[in-house]
Amino acid sequence: MALEITDSNIAEIINKNKITVVDFWAEWCGPCRILGPIIDELSNENSDIAIGKLNVDENSTISVKYGIRGIPAVLFFKDGELVDRVVGVRGKFELQTIINNLK
């Protein structure tokens, strides 16, 4: 299961893990509900990295900091730095490929 990421814990998670993947989502977002189970699967299959979800309605500070204008948006961090992002629903294979390239 994916981590619950919030404004208050995101910095710690990103800095503690070599690779962190964050899904920016909202409950009312249809495409987010499609991507959610994919994020959960990736989290279960990649236990060596941090993968989590951040609800943009409840965590606006970080959403603004990273310029989230469309959701779902998945941000990829390596060694504490933002290195990639994708916006919109993406398939599991595409997201796993990005993760593999970061490892």
Structural features, described:
The protein is of the alpha/beta class. It has a single domain, classed as Glutaredoxin, CATH 3.40.30.10. The longest helix is centred in the middle third of the chain and has 16 residues. The chain is globular, with a radius of gyration of 12 Å. The mean pLDDT is 96. The two termini are 20 Å apart. Strands 1-3-2-4-5 form a five-stranded mixed beta sheet, covered by helices on one side. The chain has four helices and five strands, in the order βαβαβαββα.
How is the secondary structure organized here?
Elements: E1 3-4, H1 10-16, E2 19-25, H2 30-45, E3 50-55, H3 60-65, E4 73-78, E5 81-87, H4 92-102
Parallel strand pairs: 1-3, 2-3
Antiparallel strand pairs: 2-4, 4-5
Structure summary, number of beta strands: 5
Strand order of the largest sheet: 1-3-2-4-5
CATH class: Alpha Beta
Briefly note the CATH topology name: Glutaredoxin
Query: What is the SS-derived class?
Result: alpha/beta
Element pattern in H and E: EHEHEHEEH
Q: Give the DSSP E fraction (strand runs of 2 or more residues).
A: 25-35%
Shape: globular
Low-confidence stretches: none
Oligomeric composition of the shown chains: single chain
> How many distinct domains?
1
